[in-house]
């Protein structure tokens, strides 16, 4: 019972993830999980983040096929794995994938897969995805061999590429450490790479079947689809030390002061017409949260009308901060006519926000390579209509969806007072590790936005673990059983300490961007800091993420000071100095394991034994610093 309670407190569900199986072959180590390879390291250094065989449906949802006939053989200096995966699609169509994985010390890792359907099978993608890490890899040299045999010596993108940096790939070779290189060879189809940092994934993804080809497509009944990935590591070092330990790093994480500093951003809450009444009923929690900004969402295509503005006005009166209206403009009539209609409704309701964010509704839908851009008025016309309809109000633009869409359709900034976009961590994967790893991508996103738009005021959000919209398919995924699934409109971890840690880690990772406002939640609903009446929640209805959002709201406008972590994949930290209070050291453990944190280089106002703090799984700590 205790383990179930602890799991629910951490993840909002008592269903625990199945831990990976660690496999080794000499200096090589991999985690085998759910049929795929994760965290592939050589001598303790990450070579690849994953090699996965994935099947996606027509909405880019990822199948989670059950495995049968699973065999795992860990030898002295080698390992092998075999299994059969079974996918069931619409109309009882089926797909069977037979897999063999093997590795020997000093040899290659071979991942061989053969897919066959007895019925025919519809898919957007069926085959391998290979993930290269980004930290320590972005901007470094890489050699790409193409299907026609020629080779390009180039670099991994540093700023985030909107489109595929490499196409028609057969193999890719990069440096793991001095005198150690890794070649990943892909056989059975034509591969290409996309920069997954676009979606806040912490990886470059090499995948099968070019996006310029039609999708969804059919795997014909009885046709064998075979692919193979071969990872070969070449070690030219003359002197080799003892192999690095493959056990999880148990050493203490050290935190020290860095050199960067700035001002903490304002904190926002998003409010939709659907949650307006619940928000009014939770006015006491709204006051206790203390956001500087309320972000009101308005979408006529979702049935929102004049009544929404009366509710928005009532909510705005409850908050001492500013307000922004986010408009998904239908563009079924002229932008000016639609914007003026909104303005009239707002005036009648007495609702006049401090800022407007406006974007054509169709721009929330992704336009992948090979797709036709949807019809849409020029953004200059949309922005001019907004200025005419809402005189004297600050105007923001960008994307109501994610950085991906902003990077691919870069908005003209001349008519805008600020730039805005969102992120979502469960676009491609929804396991705990992948979600926390998306924090690594955030500085690359903000630096890329700054490279495009300079010092234009910049906002991010709403950015939550559950997905509020799916630019890549017809819908977000319903999740009535509270599972860990990609593209879901609800996620159990939003109810747990996991979300509390994710939110503070998110704030820490974007501080250097100089954001004007950061929105990480709603007040109520599936994205809220408090749970609904029929939802599982802690006492008082406040989800743990409430603690992070309220804390960040109290710190808004305070100076912050960078802290450097010896293991930023485990513990993040920064210092905030609120007026008339002692400076605070904020720390967060973004892993499921307890972490020892050494703070000897910081001037703490309290005495810690050995200047060491223990942070529990996904724990947050605030420590006062001495003057």
What's the Cα radius of gyration?
Answer: 25 Å
Number of helices: 11
Strand pairing plus helix content: what structural class? Answer: alpha+beta
Query: End-to-end span in angstroms?
Result: 45 Å
- Give the helix level as a range of percent: 10-25%
Strand share of the residues? Answer: 35-45%
Per the principal axes of the C-alpha atoms, what is the gross shape?
globular
Mean pLDDT: 94
The number of strands is: 33
Largest sheet: 16 strands, antiparallel
Overview of this structure, please?
The chain is an alpha+beta fold. The mean pLDDT is 94.
Task: Give structural attributes.
single chain, 16-stranded antiparallel sheet, alpha+beta, 627 residues
Report a brief summary of the structure:
By secondary structure, the chain is of the alpha+beta class. The strands form four sheets. The chain has a 16-stranded antiparallel sheet that branches. An eight-stranded parallel barrel has the order 20-21-22-23-24-25-26-27, surrounded by four helices.
List the helices and strands and how they pair.
Layout: H1 2-11, E1 21-25, E2 28-33, E3 36-42, E4 45-56, E5 67-74, E6 78-88, E7 94-104, E8 109-116, E9 121-123, E10 125-132, E11 141-146, E12 151-155, E13 166-177, E14 180-187, E15 191-195, E16 204-208, E17 217-219, E18 224-235, E19 253-263, E20 266-271, H2 276-281, H3 283-289, E21 293-298, H4 306-316, E22 322-329, H5 335-349, E23 355-360, H6 379-389, E24 394-402, H7 403-408, E25 418-422, H8 432-437, H9 442-453, E26 458-460, H10 497-510, E27 517-522, H11 545-555, E28 559-565, E29 571-576, E30 584-589, E31 595-598, E32 612-615, E33 620-624
Parallel strand pairs: 19-31, 20-21, 20-27, 21-22, 22-23, 23-24, 24-25, 25-26, 26-27
Antiparallel strand pairs: 1-2, 2-3, 3-4, 4-10, 5-6, 6-7, 7-8, 8-18, 9-17, 10-16, 11-12, 11-13, 13-14, 13-15, 14-18, 15-16, 19-28, 28-29, 29-30, 30-33, 31-32
Helix pairs in contact: 4-5, 5-6, 10-11
């Amino acid at each position: 019972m205790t383990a179930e309670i602890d799991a629910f407190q951490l993840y909002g569900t008592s269903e625990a993830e199945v831990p990976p199986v660690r496999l080794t072959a000499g200096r090589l180590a991999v985690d085998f999980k759910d049929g795929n390879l994760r965290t592939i390291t050589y001598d303790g250094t990450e070579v690849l983040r994953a090699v996965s065989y994935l099947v996606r449906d027509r909405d880019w949802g990822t199948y989670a096929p059950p495995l049968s006939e699973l065999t795992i053989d860990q030898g002295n200096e080698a390992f092998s794995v075999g299994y059969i995966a079974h996918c069931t699609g619409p109309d009882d169509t089926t797909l069977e994938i037979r897999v063999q994985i093997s590795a020997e010390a000093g040899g290659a890792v071979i991942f061989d897969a053969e897919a066959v359907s007895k019925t025919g099978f519809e898919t957007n993608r069926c085959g391998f995805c290979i993930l290269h890490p980004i930290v320590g890899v972005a901007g470094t040299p890489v050699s790409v061999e193409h299907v026609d045999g020629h080779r390009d010596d180039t670099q991994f993108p540093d700023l985030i590429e909107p489109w595929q940096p490499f196409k028609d790939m057969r193999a890719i070779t990069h440096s793991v450490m001095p005198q150690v290189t890794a070649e990943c060879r892909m056989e059975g189809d034509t591969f290409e790479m996309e920069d997954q940092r676009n979606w806040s994934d912490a990886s470059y993804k090499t995948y099968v079947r070019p996006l310029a080809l039609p999708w969804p497509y059919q795997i014909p009944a009885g046709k064998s689809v075979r692919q193979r990935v071969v990872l070969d590591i070449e070690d030219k070092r003359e002197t080799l030390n003892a192999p690095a330990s493959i056990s999880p790093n148990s050493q203490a994480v050290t935190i020290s002061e860095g050199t960067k500093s700035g001002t903490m951003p304002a904190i926002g809450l998003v409010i939709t017409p659907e949650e307006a009444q619940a928000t009014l009923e939770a006015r006491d929690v709204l006051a206790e949260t203390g956001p500087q900004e309320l972000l009101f969402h308005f979408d006529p295509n979702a049935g929102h009308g004049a009544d929404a503005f009366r509710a928005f006005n009532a909510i705005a009166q409850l908050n001492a901060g500013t307000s922004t209206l986010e408009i998904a403009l239908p563009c079924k009539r002229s932008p000016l006519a639609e914007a003026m209609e909104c303005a009239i409704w707002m005036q009648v309701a007495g609702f006049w926000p401090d800022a407007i964010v406006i974007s054509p509704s169709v721009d929330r839908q992704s336009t992948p390579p090979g797709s036709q851009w949807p019809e849409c008025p020029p953004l200059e016309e949309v922005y001019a209509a907004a200025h005419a309809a809402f005189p004297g109000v600050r105007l923001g633009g960008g994307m109501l969806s994610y950085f991906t869409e902003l990077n691919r359709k870069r908005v003209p900034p001349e008519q805008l007072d600020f730039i805005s976009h969102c992120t979502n961590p469960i676009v491609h994967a929804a396991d705990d590790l992948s979600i926390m790893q998306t924090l690594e991508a955030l500085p690359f996103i903000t630096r890329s936005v700054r490279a495009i738009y300079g010092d234009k005021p910049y906002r991010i959000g709403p950015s939550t673990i559950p997905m509020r919209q799916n630019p890549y398919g017809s819908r977000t995924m319903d999740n009535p059983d509270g599972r860990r699934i990609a593209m879901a409109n609800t996620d159990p971890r939003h109810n747990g300490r996991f979300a509390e840690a994710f939110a503070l880690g998110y704030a820490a990772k974007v501080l250097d961007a100089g954001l004007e406002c950061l929105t990480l939640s709603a007040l109520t609903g599936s994205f809220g800091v408090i749970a609904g009446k029929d939802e599982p929640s802690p006492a008082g209805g406040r989800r743990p993420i409430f603690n992070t959002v309220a804390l960040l709201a109290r710190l808004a406008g305070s100076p912050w000071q960078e802290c450097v972590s010896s293991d930023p994949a485990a513990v993040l930290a920064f210092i905030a100095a609120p007026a008339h209070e002692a400076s605070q050291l904020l720390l967060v453990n973004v892993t499921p394991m307890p972490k020892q944190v050494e703070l000897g280089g910081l001037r703490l106002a309290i005495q810690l034994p050995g200047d060491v703090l223990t942070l529990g799984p996904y724990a947050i700590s605030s420590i006062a610093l001495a003057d």
